[in-house]
Structures are given as structure tokens and as C-alpha cells.
Design goal:
Cytochrome-c3 Hydrogenase, Chain A, domain 2, two-stranded antiparallel ribbon, 2 domains, TAT_signal, signal, globular, 3 iron, 4 sulfur cluster binding, Rossmann fold, metal-binding, iron-sulfur
């Protein structure tokens, strides 16, 4: 018996640490992937202003192995890093998708979209001596796609390429594709489970998952990281790390877990080997539309004294938090 949408979301939101999607969903995911393989849903993957980190993250997927997804499940018609074709042949693939696969393919966009000078700062193909800009491709293909996925923070909100002063006018996908919902998978880089889980959901139920106010699937962005952080116990008793490597809450070292919404704390990275705070680094709120400008400085050392009660996190603008009194240590 297949899962209902509610059951699917519940499983994704309440999975135990270390459980990958294939382990979590078991036969249901295998069934969905097998069903998808019959039709080989076409996927067009474009790259704009980015570092290619989201593609690398996806290629690190373990269960299911990414080669199974790419070769047996989806029909990856276009990806600038892994496709064999080049030159005008690639431009023809994009033209065919827009004209012959209307409402039949999934459009995945990695990286921000430069908009100044009519998108001239990012061209992705050329045919008949005419350049195709990322802005033009996303505008055209976005209208024809059955679903649009913004892979990573750059595609979701502009990310690092849109940081001030943003000379090329980089924006997120939803500022270009406005006639249909854009699914934002906004971590930097995107988590492979978030991508595969979203694709499975769209294929199985024929609709996009429930999104939060920033266009992210609620099943993967349920609550602030601070609420479930294993260092929360230190915050509650007023024990704060003064230097990287110290025990204690990392709030005074630049942690933005108070405002960062994601399930990093239970899903982990690199097959759940580690994640930022577990590795001793403060959260940089890479899941949020405020990243990176309002997340800066990423790291900071702030004096801890008993003479002054700190009532805000200095590294998070406009965020008011009542910190517990610092406990004296022997």
C-alpha cells in the first residue's frame, strides 16, 4: 500500500538521525522510482552564477546511488557538467524541451540569475552565432516546465553571487519565474536528500509539496536549528563557548541557528557523517534569504563578562534574544 501525502511528509520530518531516504521510505521509494523509470521523466538542469557545489552535493548521494537515479530513473536531458554533448547540440536540446516537452519536464536551476544588461553577464549556450543567456533560458523553460526546483541558496535567493554590491544584478529563480511556484531547496550547498525527496514527491503525487513562506518544502525545513541543536543544553544553562573548540553554545562565536530553518541536525551531510555545528563551526544560516550579507560576520569572538548582560546576538541583525546569565566556571 502506498503512502499518503501526509504520511510521506511525516516520515521526512520525523526520520531518525542517520536514516537516508531509501531506508526511511523503503519499498515505497523503490516503487516510485521504478514507476518513474518507466516514463523516464525528462530533467533539464541549468547552471547560472554558482560554484557548482549543489551538483557536487547531489553526486555524493549514497542511497539511492546517484548513478541509479541518473541512468535508471530520470532522463537527464541537459546538465553542463555531466552531459556528453557540447556546442550548438546543447542549445538544440533546450529548444526541444521548450517546444516539444511542454509541461512534461522538471526544470532544475542551480545558481543565481544575472539580470543586468539583459542577462549578458551569464551565457550558457550559443547557436548560429547568437548567445543564449541564463535569464532568457530560465524565462522560457520556466513557463514550459511541469515543476521548477531552485537547487541551493544561490538559485533560491541569490546567495553569494547576489551579495553586495551585486554588480551583475543576480536574483533568485522566483524573481524570474513568476507564473508558477518555485520549490526552493535553499541550503548551501543543497542537500541531496532534499532534492531526491522533492522529485519523488512530485512524481508520486503529481503536485509540489507544501511550502513555507520562503518557498521551501516544510518537510525539510520544519523549525529553527537552535530548537533541536545538541548544544541547546549549554544555552539553557548559560554556558557559552569563547573560542572554537570550547564546550558550550556557539552563539557568541557567530552561530545563527536561532534564525536558520532546516533539518541539518538530523539528516547530516556526507551520508550523515557530520554537519556544521557537530564539526564545531557555528551555523551560518545558509538556508535563509538573508545569506550571506546579513549572516556576516560568519565567525566572531565576543567578550563574556558578568558585568554586562547581553540581550541580543550581535551577529544577527534585529534579532532579540534573552540570553541566560553566564555561569562562573572553576
Amino acid at each position: 500500500m502506498g503512502l499518503t501525502r501526509r504520511e510521506f511528509i511525516k516520515l521526512c520530518m520525523t526520520s531518525a538521525a542517520g536514516a537516508s531516504l531509501i531506508t526511511l521510505l523503503g519499498p515505497d521509494l523503490e516503487e516510485t522510482l521504478a514507476f518513474a523509470a518507466d516514463g523516464k521523466p525528462p530533467v533539464i538542469w541549468l547552471q547560472g552564477a554558482s560554484c557548482t557545489g549543489c551538483s557536487i552535493s547531489l553526486l555524493n548521494s549514497v542511497e539511492p546511488a546517484i548513478e541509479k537515479v541518473l541512468l535508471d530513473v530520470i532522463s537527464l536531458r541537459y546538465h553542463p557538467n555531466v552531459m556528453a554533448g557540447s556546442g550548438h547540440l546543447c542549445a538544440e536540446v533546450l529548444e526541444e524541451a521548450a517546444s516539444k516537452l511542454n509541461n512534461q519536464f522538471i526544470l532544475v536551476i542551480e545558481g543565481g540569475i544575472p539580470t543586468k544588461e539583459k542577462g549578458a553577464y551569464c551565457t550558457i549556450a550559443e547557436k548560429n552565432n547568437k548567445e543564449l543567456t541564463m535569464l532568457s533560458a530560465v524565462t522560457t523553460l520556466g513557463k514550459a516546465a511541469s515543476a521548477v526546483i531552485a537547487a541551493g541558496n544561490c538559485a533560491s535567493f541569490g546567495g553569494i553571487p547576489a551579495a553586495a554590491p551585486n554588480p551583475t544584478g543576480v536574483v533568485g529563480v522566483n524573481q524570474v519565474v513568476k507564473d508558477k511556484p518555485v520549490i526552493n531547496l535553499s541550503l548551501c550547498p543543497m542537500h541531496p536528500d532534499h532534492f531526491l525527496g522533492t522529485v519523488v514527491y512530485v512524481l508520486k503525487y503529481g503536485q509540489i509539496p507544501e511550502l513555507d513562506k520562503f518557498g521551501r518544502p516544510k518537510m525539510f525545513y520544519p523549525e529553527p536549528i537552535h530548537d533541536n541543536c545538541f548544544r541547546r543544553q549549554y544555552f539553557d544553562v548559560g554556558k557559552f563557548a569563547q573560542y572554537i573548540g570550547d564546550e558550550g553554545c556557539l552563539a557568541y562565536l557567530g552561530c545563527k541557528g536561532f534564525v536558520a530553518t532546516s533539518d541539518c541536525y538530523k539528516r547530516g551531510w556526507n551520508n550523515n557523517v557530520n554537519w556544521c555545528i557537530k564539526a564545531g563551526a557555528p551555523c551560518q544560516a545558509c538556508s535563509e534569504p538573508t545569506f550571506p550579507d546579513q549572516s556576516a560576520p560568519f565567525y566572531g569572538v565576543y567578550p563574556l563578562t558578568n558585568k554586562e548582560k547581553v540581550t541580543y546576538a550581535p551577529v544577527v541583525p534585529n534579532l532579540k534574544i534573552e540570553f541566560p546569565e553566564k555561569k562562573k566556571t572553576s
